[in-house]
Amino acid sequence: MGLDLLFKIAGVGILVSVFHTALKQAGKEDMAHLCTLAGFTIVLFWVVQLLGRLFSTVQDVFKLF
Amino acid sequence: MDIIQIVGLGFVVTLLIMILKRERPEIAVQLSLVLVTIIFLLVLSKIGVVLNLFRDLAEKANISYTYLNTILKIIGIAYITEFGAQVCRDAGEGAIAGKIEFAGKVFIMVLAIPIIALVLDTIVRLIP
């Protein structure tokens, strides 16, 4: 179902932390922060979609209108 | 055997969160949010079956549909509120979690008003 999403998010997290460290070592602080922000935004996009699905399912099941 | 899947998933994601928490706490929070959402989605499809049974029973017992719907709405609000509050509390924002719970309580109280009014009405009618 949405199980691949979990591993995608964990992968993005690990990748972003590696990029952050590498860019910091290279002395590009602002680029490192931009990279963190980009990873966070991508993950937030997926999370919001999943949350929307959850809320519409709850509304369907419990007849919350 | 869905429960074994869920428990295994919980273990795996807990380990992933432990890896991520030190470096990127915000992505760790999102990871736990996604896990909670997926478990909720898995469980909700099961709850639907039980609710259909309740609807059938209510129809057989001639209970008005509005009361059952009110109860279902209250359960739904409680579920969503609990979900939101727990996620916020896990992320260390106890104050926001408290406010979410407060809002849920208020909405539940508003939904319960017609039933309370009916009970009071019945009691008043019983007393001569």
UniProtKB/TrEMBL annotation, chain A:
**Entry's transmembrane regions:** 6-23, 35-55
Keyword tags: Membrane, Transmembrane, Transmembrane helix
The record's listing under InterPro entries reads: Spore_III_AC, Spore_III_AC/AD
Q: Does the keyword Transmembrane apply?
A: yes
Protein name (database record): Stage III sporulation protein AC
TrEMBL record, chain B:
- Keywords for this entry? Membrane, Transmembrane, Transmembrane helix
InterPro entries for this protein: Spore_III_AC/AD, Spore_III_AD
**Cited Pfam families:** SpoIIIAC (PF06686)
The regions listed as transmembrane in this protein's record are 6-21, 33-54, 66-85, 106-127
Record-linked NCBIfam families: spore_III_AD
| Name of the protein described by the UniProt record | Stage III sporulation protein AD
Q: Which organism is it from?
A: bioreactor metagenome
